[in-house]
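Recall that a protein's primary structure is simply its ordered list of amino acids. Everything else, from secondary elements to tertiary packing, is in principle encoded there. The following example makes that idea concrete.
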Amino acid sequence: MESSKKIPKGQLQSGLVDVLQVTPVTLSSGSWSLVSGLYEYNYSNASITATSIVDAIPANASISIVKDADILPSTLSATGTVTFYATNAPTGNITVTINIYN
């Protein structure tokens, strides 16, 4: 079961931001779709806005799957969702911690 916690506001380059950490999150291997040569995974969370910065920190136990899939560092945020990208289809589920910066 996912749990969320707000991290106190901190100072980043351009000012104060809110950070929401969601853990654990499972990116299911069967939910990646091949689109224009890359595999895409859409993760939904009501706290994500079109201007959110979202990152995913893989669990140590998932790192071999992440490496083999060649998960890319770029994400695309939209209202309520973020898209992750990979060069290859992940061969198993990936457990991550999601950080949402607003």
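DSSP finds one helix and eight strands in the chain. The chain has a mean pLDDT of 91.
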